[in-house]
């Protein structure tokens, strides 16, 4: 089996024109295969991602931008990379939003003679209710349905956005994107019609009582009304009760508020390239998280995998030919200011980014990588590396989305790359109180770091 794989890989590399003589191609294929095996051996036998994640989650916890925990995470990231002996470790200053949730939110609806409490949480960036806010509820399944309603049907009420995930879609990320406008824009669209608040069904197909937070936005000139997420079970209960009692009232209490911006940092660790130090490969995840849990899959896993990718190269004796940076971005969740600042500084310094890789889809079993570029030749070249990654189930290299943090680098890097893993369970815990360390599987996590290190090895050796 190994012989057949090496033969196939050699043919692929020959087709890519990475070296001229056939004998040299075979040697390159054998060398690459052996080096990638070294990376995986190191990851699976001596990997450090899992223990690094344990510390980040259990000793620091949720890391919302502007919080003391976010500052602790910055110092943890810097110290962790310094201890690993990277060539350079430094901070990039960035001003970030400072939204605070306040006391635990309360929600209930009155139907008949009693009140029924429901699981609810504020959406990130929402204003508070200034005490208890009571109003009738109007249920809609789409923005268009809201726009089509007469004003008198909406004014003075809560708009209840109850569009569920489309479970026909194979990739839950597609369902998340399709349902996301009600979370992001629901409060604005409701306020435009005179509503007093927005209640949003959590963005998940899981049926449980974990409400999902996430960022929302306001518009200048539009009244800022409170926006809260209901758990899927709470949304179902409210919907059923509305059928029986159309005029029922909902009571919401939230103490959240937005404070002045706070100074924070991206954390950057760098290994200087041995042959082409001016060509840069960035790999990263976002250090901030929401505040309901420990921020394990979103995105502690991406941070520790990015650090680990550099460590694996050094520990395997594979010093990269291009410069490689691990970046722990700050403020992806509610502003992306860390990603924007990183790209601004790179452009101002005249840096040449070969590629940027992001892990922000959880620490689950690897599948491959999504390639975001307008250059079809780049995709074709990278796909010729698939046989080297296929034995580790990481060889699916297809056009796709790079990531939010690296998005601002789109005009500077030849390709943006999103680490792709099995996402079927991701949105069960995404942005909830369940996103904790105990949900992460050690082997899945370490395999992901090895996949990222292997792709970096190939990018560093062959360029684009």
UniProtKB/TrEMBL annotation:
Chief place of localization: endoplasmic reticulum
Pfam families assigned: Peptidase_M28
Signal peptide: 1-24
The keyword Signal appears for this protein: yes
Record bears the keyword Signal: yes
Cited InterPro entries: CPQ (IPR039866), Peptidase_M28 (IPR007484)
GO molecular function: carboxypeptidase activity; metal ion binding; metallodipeptidase activity
Transmembrane region(s): none
Keyword line: Carboxypeptidase, Endoplasmic reticulum, Glycoprotein, Golgi apparatus, Hydrolase, Lysosome, Metal-binding, Metalloprotease, Protease, Secreted, Signal, Zinc, Zymogen
Subunit structure comment from the entry: Homodimer. The monomeric form is inactive while the homodimer is active.
PANTHER family according to UniProt: CARBOXYPEPTIDASE Q, PROTEASE FAMILY M28 PLASMA GLUTAMATE CARBOXYPEPTIDASE-RELATED
Protein name: Carboxypeptidase Q
Source species of the chain: Hymenobacter oligotrophus
High-level lineage: Bacteria, Pseudomonadati, Bacteroidota, Cytophagia, Cytophagales
